[in-house]
Amino acid sequence: MYQNYGQELKARLVDLGLADANKMRGCSPQEIDALRQYSTSGQLPTVYVQFLSTMGHDTGGKFIWDMDYKYEYLGEKQEDAKEIATSDGITLPKDAFFFMSQEGTHFYFLHTSQRDDNPPIYKFTEGESSFEQVGSSLVDFFEALALVYASYETD
């Protein structure tokens, strides 16, 4: 169902004026496979794999430009997030996979063991005592972010 999501998101971002399709750089299948080591199930959701394969190195413009989402940051973010959560007394799900962070204090994750192609999204912030659901699905989360970034363009 989500096998073309990367291309759909790409078109949406271009339509919103947030990206140049020619500047987007996706991850290779080998790079995506390397990220699976951080998943307790060895799997990543289809929607996220599609995102990575289309723009895992560069979204080609202003979409999430201020977030750490790029392939080259994801390995270290897994460890950083877990260390901060532990020091804040937060018990994270064992299958939490951190796919994005902001300013090194806000961490976004999804579950990898549920075999959900389009899982809900959770966030925790350094200094807080729990995490919260911030998106009913990864598709909805990316759409909400796209609309926020597009609103910056009209202000």
Your description of this structure?
This protein has 155 residues and is an alpha+beta fold. The chain has a single domain (5-154), classed as SMI1/KNR4-like, CATH 3.40.1580.10. 40% of the residues lie in helices and 14% in strands. Strands 1-2-3-4 form a 4-stranded antiparallel beta sheet. A hairpin with a 3-residue loop joins β1 and β2 (106-111). The longest helix is centred in the middle third of the chain and has 17 residues, at 71-87. The protein starts with a helix and ends with a helix. The model has no long low-confidence stretch (mean pLDDT 94).
Topology:
Elements: H1 5-15, H2 29-35, H3 46-55, H4 71-87, E1 96-102, E2 106-111, E3 121-125, E4 132-135, H5 138-154
Antiparallel strand pairs: 1-2, 2-3, 3-4
